[in-house]
Write a structure and sequence with these properties.
The protein starts with 24 loop residues before the first helix and ends in a 5-residue tail after the last strand. With 210 residues, it is an alpha+beta fold. It is globular. Bound molecules: coenzyme A. Coenzyme A binds next to β5, α5, β6 and α6.
Length: 210
């Protein structure tokens, strides 16, 4: 049987071992990617899940972020080893990274992080970073909304974001998507330069917690 595969992203993440499911749950929810969005100002953006072949593009995106942004990100994304780990361990059931591209260049990365087992299995973590040239055009909001939709369809009950306390832009972005600040832990983060920062935790409940 012939299938039309034009315009469809090849999802090259590995399948989980053990054969409990014929297809990872998250992968089954990604059939409608890639998607095309138009940002405020008209820029056309393509959004799709990251694949193994995106390693160089993703590394270039994070290399291009200004020094100050690195403080906002949990991992040292300028370390090629970190990106290698993301690519080698790609498993959409564990981490789902969405990439936004303009003319084939990555301009944003947003990801949903969760565990299928254990006492945090009802939670999902959300992270997002946008190229400075494309900020304040609604892109992070669109990406967060997309991840909220996927998380809801997956049956997650709560999303959380963890952000350095002085990162007003990120806190505001998540607040405007409905997240609420639930905790602030003093001097709970230490950046690459050795400076301490408060950690702000924001929650968005997707379903009533029983
Ligand atoms: C935080 C970040 C992701 C926001 O991306 P963005 O694409 O500019 O966000 P949006 O355009 O969707 O803006 C969302 C809302 O927050 C507001 N906002 C965004 N940046 C802002 C800023 N610097 N100051 C004030 N408000 C800001 C916008 O005005 C918008 O509000 P609106 O919906 O009423 O217009 C981006 O600044 C970034 O990549 N920062 C570095 C990485 C980071 O901090 N990530 C968060 C850690 S998970």
């Amino acid at each position: 049987m012939w299938m039309c595969v034009k315009n469809r992203t090849r999802l090259s993440a590995p399948r989980p071992r053990g054969g409990r499911r014929s297809m990872p749950r998250t992968e089954a929810l990604l059939a409608d990617f890639p998607k095309t969005w138009h940002l405020e100002g008209g820029t056309k953006v393509t959004v799709r899940p990251m694949g193994r072949e995106d390693r160089a593009k993703v590394a270039a995106f994070f290399q291009s972020l200004p020094e100050g942004d690195l403080r906002a990100l949990k991992d040292n994304v300028r370390d090629p080893w970190i990106i290698d780990q993301w690519v080698q361990q790609l498993n959409y059931d564990r981490v789902l990274p969405l990439l936004a591209e303009v003319d084939g260049r990555v301009i944003a990365d947003a990801s949903l992080h969760r565990r299928r087992e254990g006492w945090r299995r009802h939670l999902g973590g959300v992270r997002v970073a946008v190229d400075p040239a494309y900020r304040q055009k609604g892109l992070a909001s669109l990406l967060i909304d997309e991840l909220i939709d996927i998380a809801t369809r997956e049956g997650l009950e709560r999303l959380y974001a963890e952000i350095p306390g002085e990162n007003a832009a990120a806190i505001e972005t998540f607040r405007k998507r409905g997240f609420e600040e639930v905790a602030r832990f003093e001097r709970n983060l230490i950046d690459l330069a050795g400076t301490y920062h408060d950690l702000v935790v924001l929650h968005l409940d997707l379903a009533p917690l029983h």
